[in-house]
Amino acid sequence: MAERREASADAVMTRIGQAVILLHGGDREEARNRFGELWSEIGESGDALHRCTLAHYLADTQDDPGDELAWDLRALTAADGPAGDSGAGPEGGGAAAGMGPIGPEDGARPGDGAGGTRPRAAGPESEALRALYPSLHLNLAEDYVKLQRPDAARVHLDRARRAADALGGAGCGHGVRAGIDRLERWLRET
Asked: Which residue of 39, 47, 154, 181 shows the fewest CB atoms closer than 10 Å?
């Protein structure tokens, strides 16, 4: 039974990866269609890592900055998901990543961290979700810049910077750190 569930999870991530290839190859419309089909299949109650990853990439296929923000917020919500969802639990998420207080002006949900760190659940999936926080917050910061909300952008940029220690030293970690630095410089100049 566990093997079947693992194979099923791998199939979803494989399909997400195939759509990502389309997106990075320049076929945003087909990628958006495939991501949309997957979202319909897994829905709001699906596996947290799948929802987070899928919403994270679905945001990149949006033409409207408000829609992009909505999908990026869904990704963060999935990462912050309810207990039992992924092992990350309500105690292990984005604002919860020791990121301090947040408010409704930056897309927070009631009950998100009011100032200290909250405990985290352990496990490979929660670690995978935790590794996404710098990118999730960087994307939110970029969304708020597009929507001309620099204060909200700075809040998420600060969270991205503080969560960046979860990134490895190679590949994606370098790209996210460079994105944080680039957006930080841009916000300083405006």
From this structure: 181
Look at 10-14, 21-25, 115-119, 147-151 and tell me which has the smallest mean pLDDT.
Answer: 115-119
Query: Residue 9 CB: number of other CB atoms within 10 A?
Result: 14
pLDDT tens per residue, range 91-116: 333 333 333 333 334 444 333 322 22
DSSP state, residue 25: T
Q: Provide the whole-model pTM.
A: 0.75
Side chain identity at residue 125, one-letter code: E
Residues making up the chain, counted from first to last: 190
Instruction: Tell me the C-alpha distance between 175 and 125, whole Å.
Output: 22
Q: Is 142 exposed, middle or buried (0-12, 13-18, 19+ CB in 10 A)?
A: buried
Vertex 79, ends 187 and 64: CA angle to 5°?
Answer: 50
Contacts for 140-145: CB closer than 8 Å, 24+ residues apart: 140/69, 140/72, 140/73, 140/76, 140/106, 140/107, 141/183, 142/179, 142/183, 143/59, 143/65, 143/68, 143/69, 143/72, 144/69, 144/106, 145/183, 145/186, 145/187
* pLDDT tens per residue across span 117-126: 333 445 556 7
Number of H helices, E strands in the chain: 7, 0
